Amino acid sequence: MGPMATAVGFCLFPTALGHCGLAWNEKGLAGVQLPEADESGTRLRVKRSFPGTPEMAPPNDVQSVIARIRALLEGTPDGLLDVELDMSDVPEFNQRVYAVTRAIDPGRTLTYGEVALRIGEPGAARAVGQALGHNPFAPVVPCHRVLAARSGAGGFSAEGGVATKLRMLQIEKAQLGPERGLFD
């Protein structure tokens, strides 16, 4: 998917987890919002994140991304790596974290420490966790695939917290390593 049309807008769409929100601009996706407790909660969160952005029917390129996000949340593996994201307001450290996170295949996981190693900052596991806590593109930047340690899920800032993270991993039949699935 190349750069978006010149329209700037947002929409809500139903998924297996509830209504997600998505905002776009001429550079790509401006943000994705995982479901809040209900549709109006999701709408409010998107409006707060993108003040003044009108709610409208998504253009065709955005509709195709929505279809892929819906399929991903139903268990269809899709890395969504070709989806353009507008990271102009995202700090450089976070962009590096998000690049590594996007490279994690569906059904696989890394720890915060492993992401820190991959960006060349082995002591930065906590900062990686904070960057993922501010991820404006979940699940396109699949922060649910990054765990605190092999023994624990860690936090998750979306509605439902860790339960939502674990549900997303379960939908993907996530593996902690090459041998054993997370839910075996």
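[next item in queue]
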Amino acid sequence: MSQRVGLGYDIHRLAAGRRLVLGGVAIEHPTGLVGHSDGDVLLHAVMDAVLGAANLGDLGSHFPSDDPRFAGADSTELLRQIGSKIREAGYAVVSIDATVIAEAPRLGAHVAAMRRTVAIGLGIAPETVSVKAKTNDGVGEIGAGDAIAALAVALATK
């Protein structure tokens, strides 16, 4: 049995008129993430991490941002598809560790739901998924409240 690690990252700008979805959870906020899909930076980072661990490319190679089929796509559905692709390739996700970087909103009350969404999408236990939230201490576009980013690491076995 071999173990592999993958790293994922995503960032999107915030804009009025968009719904804020992080980790598959709709969060009340005056702005939302701009993206071809729902802009869920947390799930996008998780998917890139899982794909990297299995050496299956990146999110854009599976769901191109110029493909109209994925316009407004629900990232929880994309996560389920990635979970299936990973299993078909003979991999099992062992654990996920992810961090959302945002000045606002506060995410603590949503972390448990985010963990469950990731776990369900990948077919793993919620206790194997860690989601944390950090601010950027006022630095850069994230610190100014103009964007949200996420990082994720995945451990998988073949």
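[queue empty]
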